[in-house]
Amino acid sequence: MMDKLTLVCLVLCFTFSGMGFSQQVTPTPDQIIALTSAWEGERFSDGRPKIPDDLLERLKGISMEEAWGNLRNKGYNNQFENDWIILKEDEVLTGRAVTAQYMPFREDVNTLVKEIGKSENRAQSGGTNSWPIDVLVDGDVYVADGYGKIVDGTLIGDNLGNAIYANSGNGVIFNGSVRDMAGLSKIDGFNAWIKGHDPSYIQEMMLTTINYPIRMGRATVLPGDAVLANKWGVIFIPSHLVADLVINAEFTALRDQFGHQRLREQKYTAGEIDSRWSEAIKQDFLGWLEEKQDLPMSREELDAYLKDRNW
Fold it and tell me: Which domains does the chain have, with CATH numbers?
């Protein structure tokens, strides 16, 4: 358990890191563990929650409304952002967030960040915008707050896009812009949710932190959050809520599928399906579940969920 002094220091570290005053570009593993303390599962060596791959794959089938509603019911009201330009809008992206903060360029702060980066053995050739890419691992999503800058705010082009995909097998979410959309679109498996694109190179902006909390429009994002991005927007899910969100959303989708089918069959009225179900409808639904072959979850997971469910 962390004492009060350590907690205060941690909070101050997070508060001032965004202004370049932190003595580290990235929090220590212990600091990330403290920041994401509600997560009880496996972690990466950097301290980020390691949400299981199978949950991230199942998350692709969850609608934005189901995910948003689940989080709102738990009091997480600021996890969604929309109005994106999407590189390949018919694809769905899920993964674990690696966060980065960018700010308008200031010489003294940028010099400090570079000095700290050198002491942390970060690459000294090229720009600091390559540093977040260097820490990506398979299944990560690079999430960056570029404060909405479009012209001269292009965080990557197709070269860095290829590096991102090579490290993560995934894509990016930028509150900012990219260059060379044509080149990026040719990277199989890579996708991007951005606020704009421009042929200019990145200028007059600087990286300040990696894997600290950041703001993405309406949303607050922590390192290790699950990302769900599709054509309808992006939602950032706290790691400790992912498993519950997935099973609840999958079950809701099954209920809807059953209800729609029975309405088409005219077995029940719209009022019966759209209100609290009678015991007869519940039993019909349970029988329908028993016969269904293409469940999104395992039978064991479904049985455990039904055992605890309050209809």
Answer: 4-238 (3.50.30.40), 242-308 (no CATH)
Closest-CA residue to 192 (of 89, 80, 59, 61): 89
Q: Is a pLDDT exceeding 60 seen at residue 95?
A: yes
Question: Annotation-wise, does 157 bind a ligand?
Answer: yes
Reported as a pLDDT band with limits 50, 70 and 90, residue 5 is: very low
Residue 158 is labelled as binding a ligand: yes
To the question of whether residue 159 is assigned a binding role by annotation, the answer is: yes
Q: Is the separation of the CB atoms in 197 and 154 below 8 Å?
A: yes
Instruction: State how far Cα 159 lies from the chain centre.
Output: 23
Is 180 annotated to bind a ligand? Reply is: yes
Output 42-47 pairs: Cβ under 8 A, ≥24 positions apart: 44/137, 44/224, 46/135, 46/211, 46/223, 47/223
Label residues 172-210 b or e (16+ Cβ within 10 Å = b): bbbbbbbbbbeebeebeebbbbbbbbeeeebeebbbbbb
Alpha-carbon distance of 24 to 282, in angstroms, equals 56
Which residue from 42, 30, 1, 33 is spatially nearest to 243, judged by alpha carbons?
A: 42
pLDDT (0 to 100) of residue 12: 40
CA distance 147 to 18: 12
Confirm if 209 and 31 have CB atoms less than 8 A apart: no
Beta carbons of 24 and 120 less than 8 angstroms apart: yes
Nearest 5°: the CA angle 16, 19, 22 is 50
Compute the average pLDDT of residues 142-155.
98
The average pLDDT across 36-64 equals 97
Indicate the burial class of 245 (C-beta count within 10 angstroms; 0-12, 13-18, 19 or more).
Answer: buried
Pairing mode, strands 140-145 and 172-175 = parallel
What are residue 97's phi and psi, to 5 degrees? -75, 130
Cβ-defined contacts of 271-275 (< 8 Å, 24+): none
